[in-house]
Specification:
The structure is a homodimer of 454-residue chains. The first copy, chain A, has helices at 2-11, 21-26, 49-62, 113-121, 139-145, 152-155, 190-194, 228-241, 252-262, 283-298, 310-321, 323-328, 345-359, 385-404, 420-442; strands at residues 17-18, 42-44, 66-69, 86-89, 96-99, 104-107, 125-126, 162-168, 174-178, 203-210, 212-213, 219-225, 246-251, 272-278, 303-307, 332-335, 362-368, 373-380. The first copy, chain A, is of the alpha+beta class and 454 residues long. The two termini of chain A are 29 Å apart. Chains A, B: Its cofactor is FAD.
């Protein structure tokens, strides 16, 4: 094998192929921390499209699997290494140019989401998608998973902001799809097909992003409830009438975990807390906030607080974002990502509580409630084999529940390797076959991220 | 052949298969009026997915081409009949149900866009995409072409509102893709792949649409310019700062053609007219209108008129929508649909004027200027063979020009049969090959809309 690798090393600039065992080991897992992760032959860190092409030509020639990897923050094991594979990390592909006239940016995939936001903000522009992990996740990974976030309830998900891509196919061919045109229907919608394809169809080497003018400062409303159902009812009433720019949910476990850490005076007795915002301009933002506060009150909120002060509002958003690390302090997490049509939100949350009771594990639920997209956080101790097993059972049962409620096994994190056994149960045999036909057409040898996604 | 057709007739409810020669002849062309249209064996008008499946199973069994057709308003010849093919018209598939709780509608493809808008408006909801032909085009055709419209500059195009589809594949398999979930990343983005596929991958039999709360009443600004460049400069300034809900352009030919018919007092001496709107709520809408009026003035507008009266505003929008029929009064039209990145808009329009002069044909340009999407209307007399030939040359040269300016041969109408020879020139051989691989994977026998789209 070392002579095989030698030809790859020779084909690329010095330092691009890393074989140091410690470094290679550090690329075994992503944030899903899959215990079944393998060990790659090498980690390849190209800086240019041509280098990615060389890697894939070599991989096709030697029938070696390639695991594309962004910042390694994926939560479904989409970037878990396999024995004998190559991990292709885009971390060194970090250029960006912003064009204010077309209101677009052209970025390489390794740039972090926060870096994209910052680069475009310097031109008075805004890239909306905001995964909670925006400070540590890459734009390429966002596109590979069609990532969501908090503002998606109003502004849509990553795919809505991808106008063009350059991708490298399994055989090393580089293809440009779309470009800085707001409308373009020439040929099949291949740009959109590659968004969310989890590295199974090609490697993204450049993206053209649609940008918006800078966001207006939001008005924020925070409300506590003594029942989850009451909070869920309020969500449906709100989204039926207005377009909030954020509509987030935390359950009592998350509230208390955050309060333990941040000590900001959250209501420890609440069963649910909502953090909502409107970024409509001028008095409309305040009117929306007032409307949401009224809906919360009408639905039995025990406490409602509104603010138009951006910093005060951001403190509550930060609290919501902090929920995952705060709950993680209680143990290891199996992080779920199930979604349902909005009216089923309360049934999903109460069903999850039943699963938690039955499997005797702690499950905290946080949610992008306005999208019906929840993140049940299953807390377990990996050293306790029985508990770990019960947590895994709960993980699957939550997906089964979401599907039974007309929902999805993954709203924004991707199928990866962890959720693959549940995919067919959601989309059915005909759609599975259709996925497979497209995968086979684009990657006939199956070298791209085998075992992940479809 | 008649016995072949007999088996189709027998497989479907009475009246579904139409063989009356006059009726079949009326389905030869769509609005592109392709003179090379063939004549189908029969027109099939199913009402249910199961009937569409029966048609496609039969077509696959007999290797007969199927031309899917919505309302027949396509402008690129995507529904032109072929000799020996079957035209599959969705015109009798007209059900719709609206769900206010999920803010979605499930519709059959034959419903007109205006009927969808009306059905959801009855529930206080809004389906934004608004092709100029919205009163006569079908929602299925809108999805098959990823149709645009006037409000797309702020609200995006059809694909942004398609959450789910049921499609019937070439072999008759029915597949459900997506559904009433605002976020769902399970499996490849196949819903998006079918949007804009022009009937080449499958037949859409049901759509799940994302809806918004009702639109707010817009403030409208109308401005006249003595140069196209000045108007184009204003467009770039506006979209860099705010999000207008409409930003439309008409050239002097269109202005005069509309004024000939409507006599509403448009400035006949103007080189260009802009119709812009903002639907931001409360004072923000007026502030946007004021900003746009100022930008128009700063860029040398000869006349600027603002109104917050919805009826007065709608009169100007109607004038813009009326431009195509008004110019059509001057002769037959070859209707173009080219788009460019915004800064190239003025170069595109002036380049088109040069082509018109060189080919000695009248070309009027109207545009969804905020999207960089233009509709050059090439006027010709089909009885004048030499002029018809010059018009066809201009048609191709305009696409070549758009591509040279970094643009697209079609922004929202589709490639159809008319633009197919120019597709490879825009997207390049690698993307063509990728399109072809997907087409072959989904329709290996090539029976779905052969010769159209990809």
């Amino acid at each position: 094998m070392s002579s095989t690798l030698d030809s790859l090393i020779a084909a690329l600039p010095e330092g691009t192929v890393v074989t140091d065992p410690d470094i290679v080991a550090s690329y075994r897992q992503d944030r899903a921390a899959d215990p079944h992760a393998g060990t790659a032959l090498a980690v390849v860190r190209p800086t240019r499209t041509e280098e990615v092409q060389a890697v894939l030509r070599w991989a096709t020639g030697h029938q070696i699997a390639v695991i594309p990897r962004g910042a390694g923050t994926g939560l479904s094991g989409g970037a878990t290494a396999l024995d004998g594979a190559i991990v292709l990390s885009t971390e060194r592909m970090r250029d960006i140019t912003v064009d204010t006239a077309t209101r677009t940016a052209v970025a390489q995939p390794g740039l972090l989401n926060a870096e994209v936001k910052k680069a475009v903000a310097a031109h008075g522009l805004w890239y909306p998608p905001d995964p909670s992990s925006f400070e540590i996740c890459s734009i390429g990974g966002n596109i590979a998973t069609n990532a969501g976030g908090l503002c998606c309830v109003k502004y849509g998900v990553t795919t809505d902001y991808v106008l063009g891509l350059q991708v490298v196919l399994a055989d090393g061919t580089a293809v440009r799809l779309g470009g800085p045109r707001l409308k373009d229907v020439a040929g099949l919608s291949l740009t959109k097909l590659f968004v969310g394809s989890e590295g199974t169809l090609g490697v993204i080497t450049e993206v053209t992003l649609k940008l918006l003018p800078a966001q207006h400062s939001p008005c924020t409303v925070v409300a506590s409830f003594d029942s989850v159902e009451a909070a869920a009812r309020a969500v449906v009433t709100i989204t039926g009438k207005i377009r909030p720019s954020m509509l987030e949910f935390m359950d009592s476990v998350a509230i208390n975990a955050v309060e333990d850490k941040l000590k900001m005076g959250l209501d420890r007795n609440a069963a649910a807390m909502m953090v909502a915002a409107s970024d409509e301009r001028g008095p409309a933002g305040g009117a929306d906030a007032e409307f949401m506060a009224q809906v919360f009150t009408d639905n039995g909120a025990t406490e409602v607080f509104s603010t138009s002060d951006p910093e005060e509002g951001e403190a509550f958003v930060a609290a919501r974002r902090y929920a995952i690390p705060a709950v993680e302090a209680k143990g290891s997490l199996l992080l779920e990502d199930v979604g349902v049509p909005l009216p089923a939100l309360a049934d999903l949350v109460s069903g999850i509580a039943k699963i938690a009771a039955q499997r005797e594990v702690l499950i905290s639920v946080i949610a992008h409630a306005g999208d019906g997209n929840t993140h049940p956080l299953i807390v377990f101790d990996p050293a306790d084999t029985d508990m770990a097993q019960r947590a895994e059972l709960a993980f699957g049962e939550i997906m089964d529940l979401a599907v039974a409620l007309g929902g999805t096994i993954t709203g924004e994190h991707g199928v990866g390797r962890l959720k693959r056994p549940w995919l067919a149960g959601q989309i059915g045999p005909e759609a599975m076959e259709l996925n497979r036909r497209i995968k086979d057409a684009l990657d006939p040898a199956g070298i791209l991220n085998p075992g992940a996604g479809i």
